[in-house]
Amino acid sequence: MATTVTQQGAGRVYLLLHGGAGPQSVAPFADLLAADGTARVITPTHPGFAGTPRPDRLDTVAGLASLYRDLLDRLDVDRVTVVGNSIGGWIAAELALLHSPRVSATVLVNAVGIAVADAPVTDVSGLSPVELSRLSYHDPSLFRFDPAALTEPQRAVLAANRQALGVYGGPSMTDPTLRERLAGVTAPTLVLWGESDGIVGPAYGRAFARAVPGAEFVLLPGTGHVPQLETPHQLLTHVRRFAETAGG
Question: Strands 12-17 and 80-85, how do they pair?
């Protein structure tokens, strides 16, 4: 199927997978990653987000992972470092389990997807954008959100994003089988976690890292659920270092 994809830069290849906030939540980081001319950044929009069409048959995170495996094949790229935030991290984990020879390393950034009894994913389905912002940032005052300032097209995009997120992730944003299946991941994996994440806290992140053989866990200070927006240069340092050392 046709997939909306943005590409920029040249060099080491990164596949950047956005979370529930949509592609605009990773667009500035994609610019930053490609800015020095050493990276080719591929940023797809998950079908259904940002007003894009979604086939009825595409309704699971595993389906998205298969879609992006095929995308890498069509683009004929190798030694790809996959970077995913939130549900994008879940997609990245499922993609790692497909063992594509094109993927050399995986970076999970405040990912959701596993079930952790003593550290559940916060249910954000009924939260207002303002409430969601309070849980998403270490310092929400720097990311003030005024719903009244939204245009009708912007409201429509937000509604589409929420609907698509619910289709792919369900009400719990977890797959009860994923945690055990992660034992099958063989690609080098880095798990990055904002220390102030109010949606999935550090205990959840550490459980994610323990589930992946040999995974490295790094806690990001002064950061919430979306490091690519709140502390992008800190995130960039870790992503580049891991891609260069573990990605071949």
Answer: parallel
pLDDT of residue 248: 79
Q: How many CA atoms lie within 13 A of 87 on its CB side?
A: 29
Mention every residue, 6+ apart, whose C-beta is less than 8 A from residue 215. Answer: 185, 189, 190, 191, 208, 209
Amino acid at 26: V
Question: What per-residue confidence (pLDDT) applies to 21?
Answer: 92
Q: How distant is the alpha carbon of residue 85 from its chain centre?
A: 2
- How far from 43 is each of 14, 40, 64, 202, 220, CA to CA, in Å? 8, 10, 13, 26, 23
Taking the C-alpha atoms of residue 60 and residue 165, their distance in angstroms, rounded to an integer, is 10
Predicted structure pTM score: 0.97
- Phi and psi torsions of 83, nearest 5°: -120, 120
The 10s digit of each residue's pLDDT in 125-183 is: 888 888 888 999 999 988 877 777 888 888 888 889 999 999 999 989 999 999 999 99
Least Cα distance to 45 among 130, 212, 149, 160 occurs for 160
Paired residues of 105 in beta bridges: 81
What is the C-alpha separation between 227 and 136, in angstroms, rounded? 9
The closest alpha carbon to 215, from 190, 180, 192, 238, belongs to 190
